Amino acid sequence: MATTESIKPHYEQIWQTVQLIPKGKVACYGQIADLAGLPGRARLVGKALSKIPKGGWQGKLVPWYRVINSQGKISFPINSPYFLEQKQLLQGENIVVLGVKIKLKDFQWQPDYTELLFLLKF
DNA sequence: ACCTTGACGGTTC
DNA sequence: GGAACCGCCAAGG
User: Fold this and answer.
1) Domain limits for position A24
2) Number of domains composing chain A
3) In chain C, which nucleotides are within 7 Å of a protein Cβ?
């Protein structure tokens, strides 16, 4: 039974965590990495997001656009297609985007203690 | 098995 | 502010 358990990319763990970000909130790459049990692996989060299966994962869409960098900025080159798409999607959720920047103070997701306990999965 | 790539982060200047 | 540097290490070639 446990024979095929070896292959377990961390991508799935990351996608799952991103799906927890509430609408109208954003999270940083590093924050997602930490919550996903991969402290310090922010770059891996970026990579995972770039490989989200078309149509989502486990029947649910993965809100990739709710993930920004620790400086509160969108990480795509300004005016690139993905940049524009992300900005539009965020604004569509009432998130204020000034230029490339978002006020983390106002829009960063801050899980409460019960959520954290759940995420840390003992 | 070795080498390069990253939708990053923190530190420093 | 912002740019340069370096650390991190899984994934994919």
Assistant:
1) 4-116
2) 1
3) 7-12
User: What integer pLDDT is reported at residue A4 of this predicted model?
Assistant: 38
pTM of this structure:
0.92
How open is the CA angle A72-A67-A116, to the nearest 5 degrees? 100
- Residue A52 half-sphere exposure, CB side, CA atoms within 13 Å? 22
Decide if A86 contacts A65 (C-beta within 8 A).
yes
Q: Is residue A94 part of a domain?
A: yes
Which of the nucleotides lies closest to A66 (Cα–C1')?
B7
| Residue A73, strand partner residues | A101
A86 within some domain: yes
For position A116, what pLDDT does the model report?
Answer: 87
Task: With beta carbons less than 8 A apart as the criterion, state whether A58 and A18 touch.
Answer: no
Q: How, if at all, do strands A27-28 and A67-68 pair?
A: parallel
Domain assignment of residue A121, yes or no: no
* Residue range A66-80: mean pLDDT, rounded: 97
CATH assignment of the domain containing A101: 1.10.10.10
- With distances taken from each CA to the C1' atom of nucleotide B5, the closest residue turns out to be A47
